[in-house]
Amino acid sequence: MAKDEMDSELPAQEAAKGFYARYEPKEQLGRGVSSVVRRCVEKETGKEYAVKIIDISEEKQQQYQAEQTKQDTIREINILKMCSGHKHIIELHDSFETNTFIFLVFELCKQGELFDYLTQVVTMSEKRTRIVMRQLLEAVDFVHKKDIVHRDLKPENILLDDNMNLKLSDFGFATVLSPKEELTELCGTPGYLAPEVLAVSMYDDVPGYGQPVDMWAIGVIMYTLLCGAPPFWHRKQMQMLRMIMQANYQFGSPEWDDISQGPKDLIASLLVLDPAKRLTSSEALQHPYFKREVKPVVKFQAKKKFRAAVICVNFFFRMRFFKNNPPPISGEVMNNNPYSVKNVRKLIDGCAFKMYGHWVKKVDNQNRAALFEHAPRNDWKEHHDS
Questions:
Q1: Could you report the per-residue pLDDT of 124-176, keeping only the tens digit for each?
Q2: Is 299 annotated for ligand binding?
Q3: Which of 114, 139, 296, 376 has the fewest CB atoms within 10 Å, i.e. is most exposed?
Q4: What's the fold here for domain 112-290?
């Protein structure tokens, strides 16, 4: 993007002097409905960050929409401050507010979204999935213990840092729950919505929802990581929502043939219709899938180790003489004319003399070649006939 074009899309410097005094905006990284994300550089330190520029003006939206965007952003800032310090939650470094824009400066995750990474690799191994899911559950557990529900967990809202560690981001739909409070607002991404979120938006006589909706979304994410496709998908959205309401999914595709029972059991414990029976974040972290197998301590046996070492030394010593071994002999030569091969000939001669050597008379004028004549001798035949 040309510099002039980039500058034309940025807020005027006169309207955001505080931000421009400390940061220099760079290229665009992403765009939302009312926001844009850019890379920026802190002038004092030279460190790179990501700035989310949120438009709260009334130029492109109605007054009530602008006010709602502003209130949602302020709520997100407060929640991010509550979650500050966790290694798997995006860190809010700085923020600025003007009459028309709000600037949120985050740590920069150069590896991008988990969604983009999954698009490249299609599926993840059980080992890699275990690492990702543990980090995600640790982040969600931290959030839930502060009475916060995220409500929009999906691979697009999970970032990866330089070391491929997970960073939970985008708390735009997150909210703090009061004791025994139940939510009734329909928000989130269709493929990751829990059944109770859909139910409360369609029926009047059903209870609201809470933190278990995040655990349902985690089950959807884990399923997607392992097989490369979501558990609930249909080209007709109403059919997809019906599948979610019935928890209609299966492990029947060929991609699941090589997956062990552990991750399947964890997914099945998360994609449960009844939110009261769904695993919590703390319970999920205690699932056997995350338990590493501890090998028993084996007593050191010196004699056995020494014997193995001697065998290894002898083996490598003998390997020195492999170059002196004769080249391999084809089966055709062995069948047609084995005596033409020197080593085979010596072997045959040696075996023959070991077997018949006592018949051979050890005198100077003895012809040993006569021992191997194959044609019958007439004098032997005449002697036998007489």
A1: 999 999 999 999 999 999 999 999 999 999 999 999 999 999 999 999 999 99
A2: no
A3: 296
A4: Transferase(Phosphotransferase); domain 1 (1.10.510)
Domain boundaries, the chain: 19-107, 112-290, 302-357
Residues constituting the chain: 386
Token couple for 67: 């006010």
Active-site positions read: 152
- The predicted-structure confidence for 69-98, as pLDDT tens digits, reads as follows 999 999 999 999 999 999 999 999 999 999
Give the C-alpha separation, 335 to 331, whole Å.
Answer: 6
Q: In CATH terms, are 19-107 and 112-290 the same topology?
A: no
300-to-174, 296, 307, 322, 343 alpha-carbon distances in Å: 55, 12, 13, 34, 47
Judge whether 56 and 115 are in contact, CB under 8 Å.
Answer: no
What is the sign, positive or negative, of the torsion defined by CA atoms of 298, 299, 300, 305? negative
Q: Which two tokens stand for residue 224?
A: 């997607």
Class of domain 19-107: alpha beta
**Residue 223 in contact with residue 271, Cβ under 8 Å?**
yes
